[in-house]
Amino acid sequence: MKWSIEIGGVVSTLTRNENFTEGAQVLPKKCRDPRIFSVPCTIGECTFANAMLDLGASINVMPTSIYKALNFSNLEPTGMTIQLANRSIVQTLGVLKDVLVQVNELIFPTDFYVLDMKDEKSEKESTLFLGRPFLMTARTKD
């Protein structure tokens, strides 16, 4: 089989220009994806200095100790079970809907699944786990 190539009337050429790199902008160094980082936030009168923001989590989680300390209303029951990162399966105590979470000057309504977690810290030192739903509510990009 024979191939034929038809060249049009205009042919452009590439030349080597030694001065080309002089005007080029240096790109910033690419940082790795942190996956998990902490942000300060406030719920009601309680401030959490290290709420964990997990880009891989599909739900927002609140330990029972924080739920009790905040004196929220009754939980909405769910029949949901969650598989944790260590592959253990836990039953949620319920879901707490439309909790107002303040990050800096911005306030976002967020749903939290409450889990009975063994917490070695006091309720003041316990942390929240914010996942992709929080980021979507905040209109951020993963």
From TrEMBL:
<protein>
    <recommendedName>
        <fullName>Aspartic peptidase DDI1-type domain-containing protein</fullName>
    </recommendedName>
</protein>
<dbReference type="InterPro" id="IPR021109">
    <property type="entry name" value="Peptidase_aspartic_dom_sf"/>
</dbReference>
<dbReference type="Pfam" id="PF13650">
    <property type="entry name" value="Asp_protease_2"/>
</dbReference>
